[in-house]
Amino acid sequence: MTTIPNSLRQALTGISGILVTPFDANDKIDPKRLEPVMTRAIAANVDILVVNGNTSEFYALQAAEAQAMMEAVKDMAAGRVPVINGVGRSVHEACALARASRRAGVDGIMVHQPPDPFVSPRGLVDYIKRVADAADGLPVMLYLRNDAIGTDAIVSLTQIPSVAGVKWATPNAMNLAKAIQQANPDVIWVGGLAETWAPALCAVGAQGFTSGLINIWPEKSVAILQALRANDYALAMQLIRRIEAFEAIRAEEFNGTNVTGVKAALQLVGNDCGPARPPAAWPLTPAQLAAMKQLVRDMEAGER
């Protein structure tokens, strides 16, 4: 198990804020548009910023764009919060981005679970080992979106020396509980399904959660985390109900409006980060946009 600084370990048990990737009018990445997003998140005490996650449209980015975004976010963060960089796709692309992460001095990497249709559990172990080796000692977080590989395989993944934790992004809370029971107790388990699923996953042992909401209203995510840390699940659920309309819009069209909803809300609050790239849906439908406008009005009025 990689030894990670106590400050990073503590941060991993908080909110991992998944940043959007801004695009300009010519569909080029425009990292500077993230500065107000990051400033809001840091001021609200979001614990970690993650670049090249799913809310970052990782699979819509070219490799050079992903590396440029990672380097820009690291520079803009300027040591104020830890930065984790997402890596993935082919093993060679993932290793190249892991090496670039090491050179840039980010605090760790998050390895996306390969979407390849022919992934074997033991092949996945080999994949993670090669990426971890390329990262050369950087702490590795596993981004687990499919737990059908089984508890034994998941535990095997956590035994790779550089693996510091797992972002659990499946709704199978009981499978998470089994994995936690069997894995090394030093492994950090993070709820990877944002605020909505945070109470259920935290109840069986996850610590903290990922969030796309932090791009717009980070203080609301932080309030939910504080309620969970106080074991006030009733308050946490009350706070989550206030953002349910936002998450409902993001879940439409087979989750194809996930990033679309975030970027539409950013435009409505005056922090335009450009459109979402295909195959995500863009723009919101008239009905979706009307609902989002109402949500933003309610949020700004303090009613949600």
Describe the structure.
The protein has helices spanning 6-12, 35-43, 63-77, 91-104, 121-135, 151-158, 173-182, 194-203, 218-229, 233-241, 244-250, 252-255, 258-268, 286-300, and strands at 15-18, 48-51, 83-87, 108-112, 140-144, 163-168, 188-191, 209-211. It has 304 residues and is an alpha/beta fold. It has two domains: 6-230, TIM Barrel (Alpha-Beta Barrel), CATH 3.20.20; 242-304. Strands 7-6-5-4-3-2-1-8 form an eight-stranded parallel beta sheet. Strand 6, helix 7 (173-182) and strand 7 (188-191) form a beta-alpha-beta unit. The radius of gyration is 18 Å and the shape is globular. The model has no long low-confidence stretch (mean pLDDT 96).
